[in-house]
Write a structure and sequence with these properties.
Layout lengths: L8 E4 L15 H6 L1 H7 L3 E4 L3 E2 L11 E5 L6 H13 L3 E6 L3 E3 L3 H7 L3 H4 L4 E2 L19 E4 L4 E4 L6 E3 L5 H16 L4 E4 L20 H4 L5 H12 L5 E5 L5 H8 L8 E3 L8 E2 L2 E5 L4 H18 L4 E2 L9 H4 L7 H13 L4 E5 L20 H12 L4 H11 L36 H4 L6 H14 L1 H4 L2 E5 L5 E8 L2 E8 L5 E8 L4 E5 L9 E5 L4 E7 L1
Parallel strand pairs: 1-2, 1-17, 2-5, 5-11, 11-12, 12-13, 16-17
Antiparallel strand pairs: 3-4, 6-10, 7-9, 8-9, 14-15, 18-19, 19-20, 20-24, 21-23, 22-24
The chain binds 1-O-alpha-D-glucopyranosyl-D-fructose and calcium ion.
The site of 1-O-alpha-D-glucopyranosyl-D-fructose has 13 residues, from loops.
C-alpha cells in the first residue's frame, strides 16, 4: 500500500474550471494553465471529471468512447501535456472512469440496437409483460429505469438517464473490455482512478419489483460487487495506485471491505449519508434545515466504524453533484468567511483523505439561479417537470432547485474581476452564480486571512502532523450544535471544536490556554482571558496538546 494518508485531492469539473480557447467551455489546456495555482494551494492529486468522447447529456458521465478525448475538451496531446506538466509540479492525475453504464451512442450499444446479439449481452435487455417494464424501479434522474426499444421488443436498464445504458458485468467480455480501458489510461501516466457509482455494477440474478422502495436495495453493493472489484484491481495491476470508489447508498460494512488494504479492492470510498441530513423523509426534493444531531451521528458512526474495520474514508462536503457546503451547512452571507473555514477545518482534520472541490477553497456559494432556463443539468430539468406534474407551482419548484440543484456546484470558477471572471473570453455554457460578495481566486491568493490561505494551512498541517494523517480518532460529547473530536498519534494530541450554528454556544470541555497551543482558529482573536468556555457562531478551534 502506498503512502497516501497525507495526500489531498482537488476535484476539477472540467466544463466549469477554465476555458483556454474562448468557446465558453472549460478544457484540458485550461487545467494546465492553472497548475501553478493548484501547486500553490498544495494539493497532491487532481481528479478531473470525464473528458472522454461523449454526447454530454450528463456532461461526460455518458461515455461514447473510452479511448478518446472529446474535442470540446482538447486532444490526447493536451492530456499528455497536462500529465507531464503536473508531474513537474508534483501533482498527479486521477481520471474518472464510468463503468456502470455507457452512452447509448457508444459503439457497443449501437451494435446492440442494430440487432447484434453479442452486443445486446453487453447491456441488460429484458422483456416486459403486458407492455409494462420488467420492474418498477425508479431512475436516479426520475422516471422508470427501463426504456423500451420497439424494434427489439425489449427494454434496457438505465439506472440514470435513458441515454446511459447499464453495462452487464455478468458478461466476462464486458469485464475484459473495461480492464483494457484502465490499462490504457494507466499507460498514459494516469496515477489514480475515481470509479463512478462503482457499487451499482453488480445486478441481482432475478429482477423483481420493489414493493417498499425504488429498487436500489437490489443493486446497491450487489451480490458480486466485491468479486468484480478484486478482479478488476488485480488484473489491471492498479493495487498500488490511489483509487476511490463512489459508493451510492452504501453501508459501513461494505465500505470496510472496499477499502481495507487486506481486501485488495480500493484505497477509499465516497459515501453520501452525511449529505442527506437535510432531505425531508429521505427525499432530495423536500427541503429542510440540516439535522445537526443526525450529522454528528453519521460522522461518528462512519469515522469510528471505518477505523475499527481498517477502512479509509474519502472526505468531502462538495462535488459536482452537490450544492455548495457554505450555502448548505454554513451561512453564505453574515458568516461567509467564518463558516467556510469552519467547514473546511471539520472535514480536513477527520480520519481520511480530504477532497477539495473547485471553488470551495475560495468559498464559492450556490448559484441561486432565478429561472428554469438557466439550469443545464439533466436531473434538475427532469425533476422540475416532475415537481410541476406533481402539483407544485413554478415558484415552489424553482425554490427547491435553488437549494438542491447539482448546477449550484457547476457555475464557472471565478478567477479574477475581469469580464466573465477570467473563466473565459465569452459567455460561459452555464451562468455564473448570483453572488453577494465578489468572490475570486485572485483576491484571495497570498492574502492573509483569506479562505484560500486557510486551506493552504490545513493542507500543510496534514503533512506536518501525523496525528492528522494517521492518528486515531475519538469523538467527545459536546453541546448540541458543536462537534468535537480528538486525533492522537504517539505523543501528539489534537482537539477540534466546530460550532455548526449561528449562535454562541458554551463548551462542555473546559480548557486553559497554558495547557494547549492554538493551532488554528477562524476568528481573528481569542478572548484575552486565557480561558475559553464558549464558541462564537461557526467558530472553530484546533488545539494541540503535547505530552
Ligand atoms: O453520481 C452518482 C449519483 O448517484 C449521484 O451523486 C447523483 O447525481 C445524485 O444522487 C442525484 O441526486 C455519479 C456522477 O457523479 C454524476 O455526475 C453522474 O450523473 C452519475 O454518477 C451518473 O454517471
Ligand atoms: Ca474551451
Amino acid at each position: 500500500m502506498n503512502n497516501f494518508q497525507d495526500k489531498v485531492v482537488y476535484q476539477i469539473y472540467i466544463k466549469s474550471f477554465k476555458d483556454s480557447n474562448g468557446d465558453g467551455i472549460g478544457d484540458l489546456k485550461g487545467v494546465t494553465e492553472k497548475l501553478d495555482y493548484l501547486k500553490e494551494l498544495g494539493v497532491d492529486y487532481i481528479w478531473i471529471t470525464p473528458f472522454y468522447a461523449s454526447p454530454l447529456n450528463d456532461n461526460g458521465y455518458d461515455i461514447m468512447d473510452y479511448y478518446q478525448v472529446d474535442p470540446l475538451f482538447g486532444t490526447m496531446e493536451d492530456l499528455e501535456n497536462l500529465i507531464a506538466q503536473g508531474k513537474k509540479r508534483g501533482i498527479s492525475l486521477m481520471t474518472d472512469l464510468v463503468f456502470n453504464h455507457t452512452s447509448t451512442k457508444h459503439e457497443w450499444f449501437q451494435k446492440a440496437l442494430a440487432g447484434d446479439e453479442e452486443y445486446q449481452k453487453y447491456y441488460i435487455f429484458k422483456e416486459g409483460e403486458f407492455g409494462e417494464p420488467p420492474t418498477n424501479w425508479v431512475s436516479k434522474f426520475g422516471g422508470s429505469t427501463w426504456e423500451y426499444v420497439p424494434h427489439l421488443k425489449k427494454w434496457y436498464l438505465h439506472l440514470f438517464d435513458k441515454t446511459q445504458a447499464d453495462l452487464n458485468w455478468e458478461n466476462p467480455k464486458v469485464r475484459e473490455e473495461l480492464k483494457e480501458v484502465v490499462k490504457f489510461w494507466r499507460g498514459k501516466g494516469v496515477e489514480g482512478f475515481r470509479f463512478d457509482v462503482i457499487n451499482l455494477i453488480s445486478k441481482p440474478e432475478n429482477f423483481q419489483n420493489d414493493t417498499i422502495g425504488d429498487g436500489r436495495r437490489f443493486y446497491t453493493d450487489g451480490p458480486k460487487i466485491h468479486e468484480y472489484l478484486k478482479e478488476l484491481v488485480k488484473d489491471t495491476g492498479i493495487r498500488e495506485l490511489m483509487t476511490v470508489g463512489e459508493m451510492s447508498s452504501t453501508s459501513i460494512e461494505d465500505c470496510i471491505r472496499y477499502s481495507n488494504p487486506k481486501e485488495e479492492e480500493l484505497t477509499m470510498c465516497f459515501s453520501f449519508h452525511h449529505l442527506k441530513v437535510d432531505y425531508k423523509n429521505q427525499d432530495k426534493w423536500e427541503i429542510m434545515e440540516p439535522d445537526l444531531i443526525e450529522l454528528q451521528k453519521i460522522f461518528r458512526n462512519w469515522q469510528l466504524g471505518m477505523q475499527k474495520g481498517g477502512g479509509w474514508n474519502a472526505l468531502f462536503w462538495c462535488n459536482h453533484d452537490q450544492p455548495r457546503s457554505v450555502s448548505r451547512f454554513g451561512d453564505d452571507k453574515a458568516y461567509w468567511l467564518e463558516s467556510s473555514k469552519m467547514l473546511a477545518t471539520f472535514l480536513h482534520l477527520l480520519r481520511g483523505t480530504p477532497y477539495i472541490y473547485q471553488g470551495e477553497e475560495i468559498g464559492m456559494t450556490n448559484g441561486y439561479f432565478i429561472s428554469i432556463e438557466e439550469y443545464k443539468d439533466v436531473e434538475s430539468i427532469n425533476y422540475y417537470q416532475i415537481m410541476i406534474e406533481e402539483g407544485k407551482t413554478k415558484e415552489e419548484a424553482l425554490k427547491i432547485l435553488r437549494e438542491r440543484s447539482r448546477d449550484n456546484g457547476r457555475t464557472p470558477m471565478q478567477w479574477n474581476q475581469e469580464k466573465f471572471y477570467g473563466f473565459s473570453q465569452v459567455k460561459p455554457w452555464i451562468p455564473f452564480g448570483k453572488y453577494e460578495y465578489p468572490i475570486t481566486a485572485e483576491e484571495q491568493v497570498g492574502k492573509e486571512g483569506s479562505i484560500f490561505s486557510y486551506y493552504q494551512e490545513l493542507i500543510r498541517l496534514r503533512k506536518e502532523r501525523s496525528a492528522i494523517s494517521r492518528g486515531e480518532i475519538t469523538f467527545f460529547d459536546e453541546t448540541p450544535g458543536i462537534i468535537g473530536y480528538k486525533r492522537r498519534n504517539n505523543q501528539e494530541e489534537i482537539l477540534v471544536f466546530c460550532n455548526f450554528t449561528n449562535q454562541d454556544l458554551s463548551l462542555k470541555t473546559q480548557w486553559k490556554k497554558d495547557d494547549f497551543f492554538v493551532l488554528l482558529q477562524n476568528y481573528v482573536k481569542l478572548e484575552e482571558n486565557g480561558k475559553r468556555n464558549s464558541l462564537r457562531p461557526y467558530e472553530t478551534l484546533v488545539l494541540l496538546a503535547e505530552s
